[in-house]
Amino acid sequence: MKYSSVFVFNEHARFVLNCLLLYDKMLECVRTIAMKQVLFLILLSCSTLLSFTQENDSIVVVQSRAGRLAGLIDIQDLVNEGYNYWNEEFEGHWAGVELGVNGFANADYSLYPEVQNDFLENDVFRSNILNLNILQYSKGLQQTRNTVGLITGIGLSLQSYRLNSSTTITRDENRKVIPKTLFFDSNQKSKLSSVYIEVPLLVEFQIPIKHHANRMYISAGVTGAKRLESHTKIKYRKDGKREKLKSPGDYSINDYKVSATVRMGYRWVNLFATYDLAPLFENRRGPELYPVSAGIKLISF
Predict the structure, then answer these.
(1) Consecutive H or E run containing 50
(2) What is the pTM of this model?
(3) I need a surface site. Which of 14, 168, 199, 270 has the fewest CB within 10 A?
């Protein structure tokens, strides 16, 4: 019985040992299979990434000529000649805000009796023009320089003429402009005003002085304008309160006009002068008056 018990114990021990060995082999197989799967997935991912990179992230190397920086700046030119500012685009001097005075030239009152002569004579220094030159387009005319060019754009012109304090204008049945006298108080003010939309066509010449950015310029050309609105206005006091009598109307003023203009300046000083090439009023509907204006630019755009 003693030997039988020992034999049974040995058999059980051998069985347990074999199970442990089998478990160890199975565990090793599982580890081997798992490692192979991981390696396969890593290789598959790398292959996919490499293929995508080759198709979409190709790098093209551009060879620059010797002596050029990033293919844009010729270092040798900079050393020999410096920066060539002549290659910059031409930029004109029209856009901005201008303020000046108005007057009339070559007045002819031959259509009126002598007592009505000069009824539109104005106070020049109280007759104002305000130009709002909003948009500008410049085009250079030179291939190797940027000192001559054409300028156009669009703007508004507000013009007013201070008349004799008690004089305004109206029209008769034939649309002829005639004077009208109105008196409210001794300090009243009378004026005739118009608003135009303008388009210029100018040729500008620029002269660099000391530094290429500081240029004296002179431009000349014409402006075409369309009248948008006209009115007369009388300001006065009544019972200590300020009053005004505003009368809109076309007053036989030409709807369109063409003006000759000259402009010049240097840095902060910019001047302009304008002369209308057609009379203010329609033919034989008013005195023959040619508006003229001059002033200074307050702000440049």
Answers:
(1) helix 2-56
(2) 0.70
(3) 14
